[in-house]
Amino acid sequence: MTLGTDPRPVAATAASELERVDALAGHRRVAWAGRDVAWRRFGAGRPLVLIHGGHGSWAHWIRNVEALARQREVWVPDLPGYGDSDDAAPDDGLAGVVRPLAATLDQLVGPRTAVDVVGFSFGGLVAAHLATARAGVERLALLGPGGHGGRRRPRGALRAWKPAAESGDAAALEAVMRHNLAMHMLSAEPAAIDPLALALHTQACLRTRFRSKEISRAGGLHDVLAGHRGALLMLWGEHDVTADPAALATAHAARPAPGALEIVADAGHWVQYEQAARVNERLAHWLAHDPA
Question: For the chain, where are the alpha helices, taking DSSP H only?
Fold first, then answer.
């Protein structure tokens, strides 16, 4: 669809889609240790938790919540230090995210309730820790998870966006965000960076207060997964620059590791956005059947 040179219709279209999906959700703010975690709920059924990535928000899942809510009660938080949630406790590192997430989830669904968890990027590492910290996580799916400890494949350097944001230069901020989406989040296809992706990424970055990069780069994912006794699925976009998915798949196949590791064609790091229909179908089947 051609919208001409005026950026306002494009921004309005993206904002209306975000508002439409958000209006489908039930909104809960749940307190723990004096801080609130914001949760959104979609659908009904067995609880399924979706955990967003670093410099993200619940909207990392905007193309997935409706499809998954057809068969599940989908709970999507803004992690502490992100979006609508309060800041994480200072100096608590990853524990400052995992503990309030687990505690507020228990308040929502009950501490003995079985749940399934899907995590993306830094949220994949959070999800793995949640699965070992909280009893009853029966299925765990990780999409481009952080903490894998393998090599990365940077496409180019990311650009600092804060100077443009602080100066109020909207055009410069858009250019930086578009560049960073191309370098880090999506595949090299220009069409992948649509107005919605640009709007969501910009909003999420502006509202991020927690630094996740050092935690994700420190590794430790495989050690944490050793403590998970449930089903496991890992999905990687074939063009994910945060890892070498083919090398990870080869290593996974060479050792007696649990679960499946699959590569999604024509996708970058933000795999559940760029190939939403394919990921939704795979997750829905995996959640409804014995893992293949």
Answer: 7-23, 65-68, 95-109, 122-133, 162-167, 170-180, 195-206, 213-217, 221-225, 245-254, 271-274, 276-288
